[in-house]
Amino acid sequence: MPMKIPFTKMHGAGNDFVVLDYTGRRFSLSKGQLQRIADRQRGVGCDQILVVEKAHEASSDFRYRIFNADGGEVEQCGNGARCFVKFVRAKRLTQKREIRVETLAGMIVPRLEADGEVTVDMGPARLESLQEVIEVQGAPVEVTLLSMGNPHAVQRVGDVDAAPVTTQGPLLEHHARFPNRVNAGYMQVIDRHHIRLRVWERGAGETLSCGTGACAAVISGVLRGLLDSPVQVQARGGALTISWAGGDNAVWMKGPAQVVFEGEMEL
According to the model, what pLDDT value does residue 66 have? Predict the structure, then answer.
């Protein structure tokens, strides 16, 4: 028997999501069903599907699960975290402006600000390699490797519009250096407080914005002496502001989150 799934379509700086409320029932969608929801021709269409569940820990408010368009579950999504807090408030699942949310990457703390944007404590970054050279089709590519709960390979480019995002990006994603795949970021430094960024996301392709990718790019730029916090990150879908005090301090991300429409999809 077909079943109808209620959903909310949202976006954060152009990074778009289908948000599902499973606080009152067990999540049981298959990989194929998730792929169909994300399909832009046969489904709702999105970069990622966000699932809201009850918290496992008493100190948390919710559990947050993220599935890429290919149906694979991933650890973190910064733009989605901003949409998450607006969703749970709009659905009256909480009245709090700041919530504690469990993810596969650990706890995050998104907060709805007075101006309508959302600030997220993304936790600390984990640096793997400041400057590593990876060979891609016989050519050397210099990247900074770090994790924001999910893996990123960030490279500096002179012109982000001309960067080989859609050709080199999938090769980096599936490179043997990254057995769990990687998000490939292409950063153009405008000045010490402003960058432009494009990201090829594993399992989703190029997205209009990537929250964890923005955090990773800014941290790589600060560590390489190119940037000073705070940094405005201009993606194709909008702007984010990233702040980091260095060391083991948390990375803070601020940006928009908006509802697009609501509906039901038959599966």
Answer: 96
